[in-house]
Amino acid sequence: MTTPGGLQRRLGTTDAVVIGLGSMVGAGIFAALAPAAAAAGTGLLIGLAAAAVVAYCNATSSARLAARYPQSGGTYIYGRERLGEFWGYTAGWSFIVGKTASCAAMALTVGLYAWPQGAHAVAVAAVVALTAVNYAGIQKSALLTRIIVACVLAVLAAVVVIIAGSGAADPARLAIGDDVGAGGVLQAAGLLFFAFAGYARIATLGEEVRDPARTIPRAIPIALGIALVVYAVVAVAVLSVLGGSGLASAPAPLADAVAAAGAPGWQPVVRAGAAVAALGSLLALILGVSRTTLAMARDHHLPHWLAAVHPRFNVPHRAELLVGVVVAVLAAVADLRGAIGFSSFAVLLYYAIANVSAWTLEPLVRRRVIPAVGLLGCLVLGFSLPLTSVLAGLAVVAVGAAVYGVRRR
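The structure corresponding to this sequence follows.
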C-alpha cells in the first residue's frame, strides 16, 4: 500500500524486528564493552542492566507513539504533534546531527576491521555500497540486514561456545569488587545505551511498515529483548575470561577473549564478524537519518526538495543521496570514533523528548510511570557522560535552536 507521502508499506513484523536487531546487535557489542568496563570496573553488568531499563522505557514510549503516529521521522513527528514545533525540531536536529557523526564513525569502524591500512577508503566504499542498496528499495535493505544479522549472531554464538567450552572461564571474575562507583556505573550505562538505541530505526520507518499500529508495538520490544539477551550472554562470557580490568584494557574485547580461551585461530573470524556488524549498523543508521531528513524536509525545516520520493523505488532518494554524500565525505577526511559520546548525548535528548511526548498520551498517572522513568533515565545517563560529550551535545542543541530562531524570524 502506498502512503500519501509516496512511500510503500512493505515491511512486516519480522522485517521490522530484523532491522532493529541490525541496528542494536552491531558494532556496539564488539566495541562498547571495553570503554564501559573502563568506566564501571567490575560493575559492568550493573551498567548493562541500567542501560536496559532506560532502553525498555524508551522503547515502550516509542512504540505507543509510533502506533498513534505511523509516519516517517520518529520522535521528530511525536514531539511536533504532542509538544509543539520547536520540540519536534529539536529532536529531529539532535538525531540527524548526532547520527550523521555516528554513521561516519561506523563506516570508519568497518574500514579499521576490514583493512586498517586503507580504513578511510574502505569506509567510503561501504557508504557508497549501502547507499546504493537503500536507494534500490526498503525490501533490498531488509534482505541485506537479514543476512548481516544472521552472520553476526553466528559469530557471537561461536564466541560464547568457545569460551564456555574452555577451561579459562572463571565465574569468580563476575564478582562485584570495591572499584564500583555510582558515577562509573552510570557512565557505563550511558555508553552501553548507544548500542541499544537501534530500536528507533523501526519507529523512523513508520510509513514503510504494514499495519503499523500493530506491527511496530510488537517489533520494538521483541528486537530489544533479543538484543538484551545477546548482550548479557556475551558480556558474561567475556568477563568470565578477561575480568573487569582485562576487558577495560582490551583493544578488541571479543577477539582477545577467544584468544584467552585458547582459540587464537578464531580471532580473524571474530574481526570479520565485527566488520559485518558495523556494516549492519551503518545500513540502519543511514535509513534512520534519511527518513528523519525526509520528515523535516516536508515541513521545510530542511530544503523541501529533499522530501521527494522516487516514483519507482518508493524511497526518499534525494535525502538518501545527500546523507550518503555527507557521510562519505566525513568518513574520508575525519576520524569520528570519538563522537560516540556526543552521539549518545544527542540520542538521549531525542528519547527524553519521546518520553515527554508519551507522557501526554496517558491520562492515568499509573500509565505515566514508564515515560517518567524513561525521561529521568535519559537525563541522568546523558549528564553522566564525559564532560566533553555533554558540552558538545549542548553546543549542537544551541546551534539548532539558533537556526530555528533565525528561520522563524
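The radius of gyration is 20 Å.
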